[in-house]
Write a structure and sequence with these properties.
The chain is α/β, with parallel strands linked by helices. The chain has helices spanning 14-25, 43-51, 54-61, 72-75, 82-102, 125-134, 162-171, 189-207, 210-213, 232-241, 247-250, 264-273, 303-308, 314-328, 330-338; strands at 3-9, 65-70, 107-109, 111-112, 140-142, 175-177, 219-221, 255-258, 279-280.
């Protein structure tokens, strides 16, 4: 089985975006507020949106299951206040749950959180519980920078995040550390802000003692870890200078990386530097990079091609494409086991 742990509903039917536009407009003109129950989207609209996009590509590329969460750039936690984000998260999470109900063998829900700049992170806990216990979410996407590129939030090791970590450990659910849209013109959303955030999150974890307090917490850093594998020597050297243990010892029991890296040398480097047990297959298909690479004739985000050409032993390839995901995402494993897979 090939499990893609990083999928977003980037092709959601148009009424979702229209509802969001109305919600944002209502921040200055309450008369434009949308129906609080959410947009009217039929099952046939959902089917068309995924069957012609993600599901078609999954079939073409031989991907069996995708962890499917709301579109990351749409989270936009910097817009409005906590109530704004809470309503938006509920609607987006419900929609991903509906996809998983229509295609229970192919999609498993992940969830966004109702974060808001300057608001206590603990306020997201009710939505974590609802998403996991009621909607069947197997992971959450946690934004380390709700301000949208201005980085006003404390580091992930700060104690203000501890209630969130406690809840994730209690529910045995990992978090993917994933930012959203950048509203800072200095940082392109997907080309700079996403990769900056991956690198920043890792450095925050390296400089702190989070996993001493939460030894069972599991965090996934997407997009191949940003600069982390490429600059592994720098991080090891910084750990030494800061009096920290080797990152292999202090972080890699709890921190994992996905394969959303869109060329062969990048995947080769990731798999050479990182232990196989810390790498999980992912593609983020129909995401930031949707075009075809003229040098190969294949889509940039067809990451299975890169992983399977990286020279891994058969057992290691199976770990990357399936076993690691089932270990890091135990609720995913339980769902698949219940289906006889």
């Amino acid at each position: 089985m090939i499990i893609d742990i990083h999928g977003h509903y980037t092709t959601a039917p148009a009424p979702l975006g229209q509802w969001r536009d109305a919600q944002v407009a209502a921040l200055t003109d309450p008369l434009r507020a949308p129906d609080p129950a959410g947009p009217a989207i039929g099952d046939d609209e959902i089917r068309e949106s995924v069957e012609t996009n993600q599901l078609r590509l999954m079939d073409e590329r031989g991907i069996d299951v995708t962890v499917f969460s709301p579109r990351a750039s749409f989270m936009a936690h910097h817009i409005g206040d906590f109530a704004t984000s809470a309503a938006w998260a509920r609607i987006c999470n419900d929609l991903c749950h509906r996809v998983s109900e229509l295609y229970p063998d192919r999609f498993v829900p992940g969830a966004m959180l109702p974060q808001s700049p300057g608001v206590d992170p603990a306020t997201v806990i009710p939505e974590i519980e609802r998403a996991v216990l009621e909607l069947g979410a197997v992971a959450v996407n946690l934004n380390p920078d709700p301000s949208g590129g201005h980085w006003t939030a404390p580091p992930l090791t700060d104690r203000c995040w501890y209630p969130v970590w406690e809840k994730l450990v209690e529910l045995d659910v990992p978090a993917m550390v994933h930012v959203s849209t950048s509203c800072n013109p200095a940082f392109h959303t997907t080309g700079a802000h996403y990769l900056n955030a991956d690198t920043t999150a890792f450095m925050q974890l390296l400089a702190g003692d989070l996993f001493a307090d939460f030894p069972e917490l599991r965090l996934v850093i997407p997009h191949g870890g940003g600069a982390v594998p490429y600059h592994w020597g720098r991080f090891r050297g910084l750990a030494q200078a800061l009096g920290r243990p080797e990152p292999e010892e202090s972080l890699l029991r709890n921190v994992f990386f996905d394969t959303c890296v869109y060329h062969q040398p990048g995947i080769d480097l990731l798999l050479e530097v990182m232990p196989v047990e810390n790498v999980l297959f992912a593609s983020e298909m129909v995401g930031a990079v949707r075009g075809i690479d003229p040098r190969t004739g294949h889509h940039f985000d067809d990451t299975r091609r890169y992983v399977e050409k990286a020279g891994l032993a058969s057992e290691d390839l199976t770990a990357v494409e399936e076993r690691n995901a089932r270990r890091v995402y135990p609720r995913l494993d339980a769902r698949l086991a219940a289906q006889g897979r």
